[in-house]
Amino acid sequence: MIGRTQPVPVSAARTAVPIVLRLIAAIGGGYAVAAGLAALLAVVLPAITPMVRSEAVVLSSMLAFPIYLALLIWAFAERRLFRLWLVFGSAGVISWSFALGLARLAIGG
After folding, report:
1. pLDDT tens for residues 51-72?
2. Angle between helices 81-107 and 30-48 (to 10 degrees)
3. 21 domain residue, yes or no
């Protein structure tokens, strides 16, 4: 019996796949959303406040950490995996689209 491995039970594989998908969504999707919101905030803050651009970038970067933490916690509190992927995907695309669009408008391109 040395060198032989036991087959993984089907029930263990069925519970592992949703956990791995939730981890990928939490880590990757949460990071994408938090970074997109930080980029959007870094572009918007100098436009609507008298804040210097470098300070806006630092502030938005610091605010991205609690946003990322909240998204990580919510990823494991949410019951439906589909809703998790849908929210992370749409929030990431929307925040990055607005951030890149506003950045292009700000530089005149």
Report:
1. 999 999 999 999 999 999 999 9
2. 30
3. yes
pTM of this structure: 0.83
Q: Which domain holds residue 62?
A: 17-107
- Asked whether residue 5 is domain-assigned, the answer is no
**CA nearest to 96, candidates 36, 29, 31:** 36
Residue pair 67/4 in contact by the 8 Å Cβ criterion: no
pLDDT at 75: 95
Q: b vs e for 64-80, b when ≥16 Cβ sit within 10 Å of the residue's Cβ?
A: beebbeebbeebeebee
Quick one: tokens of 20? Answer: 């791995």
